[in-house]
Structure to design on (376 residues):
């Protein structure tokens, strides 16, 4: 059974894609919540520099040494960025735009000068090729296991352990760094540890999806989850689900359309983001449109209560507190008048006595709260 799964290219491709998304989501969620998600873009480009440097020193194209070395380059990127920001002469977005193109360009130059005959090229680093991950295998326990499956599985497990063991500390450091610092949780250290894991994940993922597409997984998926919930734990769970769905749907569509598998997986994360943006239960455009409509209808009902209250007990009550007056005096359309009356009746704010609309005790209280906002 295991041998058949490991030997199935489609299963391996989708599994690696899902692991990339899950590992990226676990660290990317906190970057998105901190408002520093674009650091992942800087890291994913600058690790090219680290990959080349590690190869020049060790002649290793993959493995733990390559991951650690390139990950440290990600930390270097953040360090240089903060160094520029702390100078008070450059803002963070400009600092990121200065540092990572510099490191990336140096990495590309070194790649062309000293690693031209090695299987490390800019196309692979930037775009990867997840469709071939099942061909690059190592023997483990008598089974041929894709190397990307092992590296991404290890990074996913490491990220999950980090988030699981330090969940409360990460949550506090993300939402209230000052309080975390006062309680001795060292939010700065947690942040750098998070960035180190982000760098390691980017290195482990670049064979499969490349540095550019990694950004989609580390930013878009957490952003999708953010549109769907306000709870951190649920946000992480949704990110995992979207990662798996993006991998499966992306692979199926890529095979059907004969396009890049990694690119289609990344595109599917965008599709899920669009769906969340449109149909999210709280922040989606449809939900917000419904809420605005509900508030508009509620305001009509409240305006009706104020109108009836102003004329209640007055000589003109019989002329003003009827449905016809809403159209003639308030210039409401027939449909608007009907809707306001029905909503007020459903809410128990008014009652009918023939044609006369009368406020109930509840409706009278609503009108008083509007006319006398300081009243208790």
């Amino acid at each position: 059974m295991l041998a058949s799964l490991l030997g199935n290219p489609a299963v391996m491709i989708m599994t690696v894609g899902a692991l990339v998304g899950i590992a990226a989501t676990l660290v990317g969620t906190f970057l998105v919540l901190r408002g520093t998600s674009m650091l992942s873009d800087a890291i994913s480009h600058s690790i090219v520099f680290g990959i080349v440097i590690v190869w020049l020193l060790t002649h290793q194209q993959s493995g733990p040494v390559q991951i650690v070395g390139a990950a440290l380059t990600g930390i270097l990127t953040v360090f240089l960025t903060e160094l520029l920001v702390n100078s008070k002469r450059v803002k963070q977005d400009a600092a990121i735009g200065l540092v990572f193109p510099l490191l990336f360009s140096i990495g590309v130059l070194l790649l062309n000068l000293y690693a031209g005959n090695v299987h490390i090229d800019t196309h692979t680093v930037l775009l990867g090729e997840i469709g071939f991950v099942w061909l690059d295998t190592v023997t483990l326990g008598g089974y041929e296991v894709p190397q990307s499956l092992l590296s991404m599985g290890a990074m996913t497990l490491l990220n999950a352990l980090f988030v699981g063991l330090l969940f409360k500390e990460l949550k506090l450091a993300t939402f209230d760094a000052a309080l975390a610092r006062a309680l001795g949780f060292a939010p700065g250290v947690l942040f750098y540890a998070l960035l180190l894991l982000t760098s390691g994940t980017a290195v482990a993922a670049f064979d499969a999806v490349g540095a550019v597409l990694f950004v989609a997984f580390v930013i878009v998926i957490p952003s999708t989850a953010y549109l769907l919930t306000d709870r951190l734990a649920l946000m992480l769970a949704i990110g995992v689900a979207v990662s798996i769905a993006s991998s499966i749907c992306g692979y199926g569509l890529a095979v059907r359309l004969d396009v890049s598998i990694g690119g289609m997986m990344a595109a599917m994360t965008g599709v899920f983001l669009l769906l969340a943006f449109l149909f999210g239960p709280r922040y989606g455009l449809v939900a917000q449109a419904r809420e605005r409509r509900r508030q508009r209808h509620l305001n009509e009902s409240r305006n009706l209560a104020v109108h009836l209250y102003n004329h209640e007990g007055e000589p003109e009550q019989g002329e003003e507190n009827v449905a016809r007056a809403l159209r003639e005096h308030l210039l409401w359309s027939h449909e608007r008048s009907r809707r306001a009356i029905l909503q007020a009746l459903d809410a128990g704010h008014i009652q009918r006595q023939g044609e006369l609309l009368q406020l109930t005790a509840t409706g009278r209280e609503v009108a008083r709260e509007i006319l006398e906002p300081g009243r208790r």
